[in-house]
Amino acid sequence: MIELILEDYLASLKEKDELDILLSDLLKLDGYTVKSLPKTGERQYGVDLLAEKGEEIYLYVIKQGDLTRKIWDGDNNSVRQSFSEIFDVYLDTMLDSSNQSRKKNIVFVTNGIIKDAVRPNWEGYKKSNSTENINISSILLPDLVNLVFQQGFNETLFDKSKRSKLRKCLYFLDEPDYKLDFFESIISGYFEELEKVTTRQKKNKIFSSLQMLLSLVNHNAHEKQRYRISIQFTEYVLISMWSYMQKKNCFENSLEVLWLHKFIRFYIDSNEKFMDNLRPFSTIRNGLPSYNPVEYRVLCFEILGYISVYAAFLSTVNISNNLDLKYSAEDTVNLLISLMNNNYGFYYPVYDNDGIEVSLLFYVMLLQRNITDVEMLVKRYISHVFANIRSGKYPILERQYNLAMEIEFQETDYLKRYSASFLWGVLLEWAMLTEQDDLVKQILAFDFHSEATIQNWNCSSEEETNLYIKNEIHMQGYTDILNELEPKETKKMILDTSKIADFKHFSFIEYSFPAIGLMISRKYRVPVIPSYWRREFINRKE
């Protein structure tokens, strides 16, 4: 089954920036030195990739799909034309004089097969043009599959246990309540292996295998239009990668940084496909699909979390122009606002810890819009949550879907169980920071809060290592109670500059990848560290 899945994935790769990069990685793992990949706009003279091994030179002509008569000799971009340019120009003028005497291997590479109708042409061309010093050969789809298994998915890096978990990971992709347990177990295994190895070559092998795995599962998720799952795949790899780099203190190591950037590209690709999928719904009134009001609101807040984190990522990371982004941070925020304007579910949190998504939204709006827009959004959310509670629809403390359904249809009175709230801690804090004193008074005077504790969570940089550990993260940090002091004192506590100073020591802040902390909050359901936005308010005042 894995072979078939892998074959289907390899057959789907585009020639540029996918198949050529995969081949380059496989060659490196097999001991080749890759000399060059083509750059957009440069004349290639038939050669898509140049490599060497031992005393021999390898020139690769890469094409997507089956070799048909048209692909073989149909136009200026045909395989035969590429071979002609290699013989007529490249071998004589582009190779260094030191390489002229070395044996040359000209290799046709495709993620398809050679069709029977054109095979005699191909075999005849090889026979006529091969010499003692020039060998012509091919790498076809079955050969690529074998290369991947030999170099990336070998018994050391992708043993039977990992293959079994991958089968289960892919088999359940259609399930509505998909769990990442099998995928996370494979990724965790790779990073455990990385902690044991010391040589650059062994690290490259593991990273390459991890990259192939991520590409494979993302491909299958995208085919099934499970874009949120593909974002989860990439987020988990990025969180795990950052945890590994933090533990090893290798943020300035070129190898790890190179692979981090490769994994970031997967994250961007998954988010862009997700937004492509959402765009048609963004202008339709209540157009997001759902079966009932609770499911609809849950979906809205899931979307809110993914897009807010991605918008913050685009806003706070220096991204190379070479990535050719489809959406800017502004485009992403505009799409989110359009969805919110047409779907009421974004304003009615189902769970109290949907305050995570609310704080992510407020934070990215603070980064991308003016303070007046933020003030209006804070006021709007407070108004809607007030209205929902007055109707008996409380944002519940337990993340239990069945209980949420009971409350939605007035089957359970939740009032007596509402003892503490993180959501109201977020709303109260933002009302204070945007200096909307009337909203602050309304929140504190609301009789619903008379017996409830309004709180927010925070942690110090000394606890960072445990933020990456699923079973440890909820035991970290401390809680601030926001309704036990006078508003002025509470605001003074919120804007404590010593906490902002400590925030700078988190590795994802120090090394300019703040989105990691936001991904952790969304994934592990812990509040966002409030210093993200508190420092923005302090900086604006200064």
Per the principal axes of the C-alpha atoms, what is the gross shape? Answer: elongated
Low-confidence stretches: none
Mean pLDDT across all residues, rounded?
91
Adjacency order of strands in the biggest sheet: 1-2-3-4-5
Structural class: alpha/beta
Radius of gyration: 28 Å
Task: State the end-to-end distance.
Answer: 60 Å
Report on the architecture of this protein.
The protein has helices at 2-11, 15-29, 69-73, 79-94, 119-129, 141-151, 160-171, 181-196, 200-223, 227-248, 254-278, 293-316, 329-342, 355-368, 371-390, 401-408, 423-433, 437-445, 464-467, 487-494, 497-503, 507-510, 515-524, 531-541, and strands at residues 33-36, 49-53, 56-63, 103-110, 134-139, 420-421, 453-458, 478-481. It has 542 residues and is α/β, with parallel strands linked by helices. A five-stranded mixed sheet has the order 1-2-3-4-5, sandwiched between helices. Strands 6-7-8 form a three-stranded mixed sheet. A hairpin with a 2-residue loop joins strand 2 (49-53) and strand 3. The N and C termini lie far apart (60 Å).
